[in-house]
Design brief:
474 residues, alpha+beta, CHAD domain, 8-stranded antiparallel β-barrel, 57% helix, globular
C-alpha cells in the first residue's frame, strides 16, 4: 500500500487553449482508463471520496482518494480489476457499511503537460491538460480540464502558476472530481440560514455525519493525524449540538445518542491526545539541543507504546457493530429528527449557554485552579457550538464566535500544558536515567511558561468576548 498527499487546483481549458511558451519542462503524454466504483446510492461520493481502478498500458492499480483538509490523501494498491482489495475495503467499512461497491463510471483520459520549476522558492508544480472521454456512466460525452498539482513547496507556487495560466486564457471550472462531474453529484447541502431551528439542526447533524465518514478512512489508515482530529471534533460537535438543542428534542432520544457519541469519543480521545503530546514533546526536545534533546527519547518511546495500545483499542471499536449502528442513527437523525417543540429559538438556547459561561467566569477566584479553567473552556466550547448552530451568517454573532474561539484556544493551550506536565512527571517516573530526568525537568519548565502565558492573556480575551456578546445579544 502506497500513500501520497496531493494538493491541486483545477481550471477550464477550451479547445483553443495552449500552454504558455517556456512554462516548463514537457512530460510524457499518457493515456489511461479509470473505472470508478461506488455504492448504488453513491455513498463514497457523498463523502467526497473516490475509488477507482486505473489501467495504464498493462498495469492496473486501485486508487482511493480521501479528503485531507484542502488536499487529498491518495492510497494506492496494485491489482487487477475485479474485487476491491481487502485493505481498501477495510478503510471504507464505515462509509459503505452493508452496501455493495460496484462500477459506476468509466473514463478514458489523455494527459499531457509540463513540470514548472518555480524559481522563487524552488517549488515544483505539475500542470497537465486532461482530455476526458466518458465511456460508461453519466450522460456520456467528453470534457477538458487543467490540473495543477503541487509536487514540492507551498501553496503560493500553485497560485503563481494559476495566475500565469489565467493570463493565457484558462478560466474557472467545476472544482469537483471527474467522477462527480460525470455523475453530476451535487455538493453537500449546508442548510439555509432562513430555515427554522429544527431544519438547521438536521442540516448540522448531516454535516458532522459527513465529516465523520470523510475522515473515518484516514483515521483507520493512521498516516495523517489530522484525520483523527477532525473525526473527533465532529463527534464533539454533535454531542454539543444535541446538548444545546435538547429543549426542542425528545430528551431521552437525545441523551441516549449523546451517550453513544461519548463512548466513541472515549476511544478516539486517547490516540488523539497521544498524537498531540508526542508532537509537542518532539518539538520541545528539538529545542533542547544536542545536550538534553536525545535524553528525551525514553519519554517519547514510552508515550509511543501507550499510543499503540490505544490505537489498537480504537480500531477494534471502529470495526464493531456498535459503531456502525451509531452511524445509521446519525443518518436517521439527519433525515427525521424527533422534534417535540419546533418553536424553540436556537438563539435563545445559545444565549443561555453564554449566560452559563459568564456565570462560571464570575465565580473564578483571583488565582483559579487548572481544573476550573478547564471547566470554563468546556463552557466556552459549548457556547460557541450553540452559536454556530443558532446564527451562522449573522455578522455580530460571527464576531462573537471568533472571540469565543480565541478564549477557547487560550484555555486549550493552558490545559495542554497542564496535562503535558502531569504526563511528563508520570513518564519520567518510569525511567531511571538521570539525563532523562533532567531533560524532563526542562520540558516541564517550558510547559509552566506556557501556562503562565495563557493565564496572563486570558482576562483580556475574556473581556473581548463579553464585549462581543453584548453587541450580539441586546
Amino acid at each position: 500500500m502506497k500513500t501520497t498527499s496531493e494538493r491541486e487546483l483545477k481550471l477550464a481549458a477550451d479547445a483553443g487553449f495552449r500552454l504558455p511558451d517556456l512554462l516548463g519542462e514537457p512530460i510524457k503524454t499518457r493515456t489511461f482508463v479509470s473505472t470508478y466504483h461506488d455504492t448504488a446510492d453513491l455513498r463514497l461520493a457523498a463523502s467526497a471520496i473516490t475509488l477507482r481502478h486505473r489501467i495504464e498500458g498493462r498495469v492496473g492499480v486501485w486508487q482511493l482518494k480521501i479528503p485531507q483538509g484542502d488536499a487529498r490523501l491518495e492510497v494506492e494498491v496494485e491489482g487487477d480489476a475485479g474485487a476491491v482489495p481487502m485493505s481498501l475495503e477495510e478503510l471504507l467499512t464505515a462509509v459503505v457499511r452493508s452496501h455493495p461497491v460496484i462500477p459506476v463510471a468509466a473514463l478514458r483520459t489523455e494527459r499531457a503537460g509540463v513540470l514548472v520549476h518555480d524559481g522563487i522558492d524552488d517549488s515544483l508544480v505539475e500542470v497537465v491538460r486532461d482530455s476526458v472521454v466518458v465511456l460508461e456512466g453519466g450522460q456520456g460525452g467528453r470534457f477538458d480540464e487543467l490540473e495543477l498539482e503541487l509536487l514540492k513547496g507551498d501553496g503560493a507556487a500553485l497560485r503563481r502558476v494559476e495566475r500565469l495560466l489565467r493570463r493565457a486564457g484558462a478560466g474557472d471550472t467545476d472544482s469537483r472530481a471527474k467522477l462527480f462531474q460525470v455523475l453530476d453529484v451535487p455538493g453537500p447541502d449546508a442548510g439555509n440560514p432562513d430555515d427554522d431551528g429544527a431544519k438547521r439542526l438536521a442540516a448540522a447533524i448531516a454535516a458532522q455525519g459527513r465529516a465523520i465518514l470523510a475522515n473515518d478512512p484516514g483515521t483507520r489508515l493512521g498516516v495523517d493525524p489530522e484525520h483523527l482530529h477532525r473525526h473527533r471534533v465532529a463527534v464533539r460537535r454533535l454531542r454539543a449540538m444535541l446538548r444545546a438543542a435538547r429543549p426542542m428534542l425528545d430528551r431521552e432520544w437525545a441523551d441516549d445518542l449523546r451517550g453513544e457519541l461519548g463512548a466513541l469519543g472515549s476511544v478516539l480521545g486517547p490516540v488523539r491526545d497521544a498524537d498531540v503530546l508526542m508532537a509537542r514533546l518532539q518539538a520541545q526536545a528539538a529545542r533542547l539541543g544536542d545536550a538534553d534533546g536525545p535524553a528525551c527519547l525514553p519519554l517519547l518511546q514510552a508515550l509511543s507504546s501507550e499510543r499503540s495500545v490505544a490505537r489498537t483499542l480504537m480500531l477494534h471499536a471502529l470495526r464493531s457493530p456498535r459503531y456502525l449502528r451509531l452511524l445509521d442513527r446519525l443518518d436517521q437523525a439527519a433525515a427525521a429528527l424527533p422534534v417535540i417543540d419546533p418553536g424553540i429559538d436556537l438563539r435563545d438556547v445559545a444565549a443561555a449557554e453564554y449566560r452559563k459561561l459568564l456565570r462560571d467566569h464570575r465565580r473564578l477566584s483571583e488565582s483559579p485552579s487548572d481544573d476550573s479553567l478547564h471547566a470554563l473552556r468546556i463552557r466556552a466550547k459549548r457556547a460557541r457550538y450553540a452559536a454556530e448552530l443558532a446564527a451562522p451568517d449573522d455578522r455580530k454573532w460571527k464576531h462573537l464566535i471568533t472571540r469565543t474561539k480565541q478564549v477557547q484556544e487560550l484555555l486549550g493551550e493552558h490545559q495542554d500544558a497542564h496535562v503535558a506536565e502531569a504526563r511528563l512527571r508520570e513518564l519520567a517516573g518510569r525511567t531511571t536515567g538521570v539525563d532523562t530526568h533532567l531533560a524532563a525537568g526542562r520540558l516541564i519548565e517550558q510547559e509552566r511558561g506556557r501556562r503562565r502565558h495563557s493565564r496572563r492573556h486570558f482576562p483580556k480575551a475574556m473581556h473581548r468576548l463579553e464585549r462581543a456578546l453584548r453587541r450580539a445579544i441586546r
